[in-house]
Protein: Oxygen-dependent coproporphyrinogen-III oxidase, mitochondrial
Amino acid sequence: MATIVLCAVNKTAQSTPRRCLLAYSKGLARAGESSTVPSLSLTLLPGTRWFSRGARVRFMSHGTASSTAAGGTRRGALALSGAVAVSAAAAVAGVLINANHFQRAEMATKVSSVAVDEQEGDILERCRDFMSAPVTDIAVLQERKGEMSTRMEMLIMETQADFCKALQEVDGGKFKVDRWQRKEGGGGISCVMQDGKVFEKAGVNVSVVFGYLTEEAAKQMRSRGKVLKGKDGKLPFCAMGVSSVIHPKNPHIPTVHFNYRYFEIEEEDGSKQWWFGGGTDLTPIYINEEDAFHFHNTLKEACDKHSSQYYPDFKKWCDRYFYIRHRGETRGIGGIFFDDLDTPSQEAAFSFVKSCARTVVPCYLPIVYKHLKDSFTEEEKDWQQVRRGRYVEFNLVYDRGVKFGLATPGSRIESILMSLPLTARWEYMHEPAKGTREAEMLEVLQNPKEWV
Structure:
């Protein structure tokens, strides 16, 4: 049985003529790659070329049109299998029928993400596409391939690589890859790009640490306040995660943050507790309803694959968590946030986290491309600086991740404070004039909205 992969490629990207600009995940066609399956090229939309590779048919769509297409096909990745001719015809028909869906969302023709099954290829092969070798030795990862700690480390490494490569492509700059070790156990990989063409500061960090945790530090990890009893006040632990904060130069491109993490702790009686946490949230400087819908709807679709309650519950949690109490406003327009996730099973929780991690490119990069060439005034830049000041206030006063990092022995301060922007501003008694776009933004922050 032959199969096809359909991806949109920007014709102007001459440096990557066979690379799918819509996706940055592993398993996509690469420049100069040979294959025993012939490519099928089709011109369907202006500036877009569709081609076939591989053993399945997939086309990706993300945008602001209706969530259904002709025939009741759900928006998202459409996978078809069968003979090459039949598969190609079906996929082409679906694209043509739904052409307006793509055209209504210009951002959608630029970037998306294709989920590649984690079992595809061995550990060593998957590591070749990372920004750096994993924190844990590859031989150890291969030996423990089935353990959750290994599977999670591979996921966060892949998430870091996918996001960094997507950002590098739009910016034209390169991330500085900084490996660091923690003498108490483990280490991390910090990828930071500063003073780029598009991004003033972009950081995507991975950490995998282990050792002994004080009970005080453990309290910072649990939002429900569950008591964790260690031996002589210490708990053996393993913690890993990927975190990112992106501060663009253009005030019309929002700041984005995401973090996905996994913890294991061994208590005094030898029993182990594990849980996942994380989320993705957007902090625009000016409200754009289409952007807000795209961002939240992409997250909602990922959540809905696992539970219809996840998005509404975790959206509310996000609004509550990213709240600057002393200002009476949220940090941004939210997204999703969850912590202490240990149900319904470890496998189900990991599958959900994997779906969330694979939304970070398709929920954000289309918005970046959409506003890439937007002009802005000095006044708009000043408002961005004021809003960045609020971002700093939240991170230093309330963020539990920062508090956990500072409370953990051997933590790397540079990586913890990577989330802070290069520049910010604090004006005394600053208040935007009524009827302005700045006042509109503040109103949304003081009264969170439902975007989907």
User: Anything to note?
Assistant: Residues 1-116 have pLDDT under 50 and may be disordered. The CA atoms of residues 15 and 35 lie 20 Å apart.
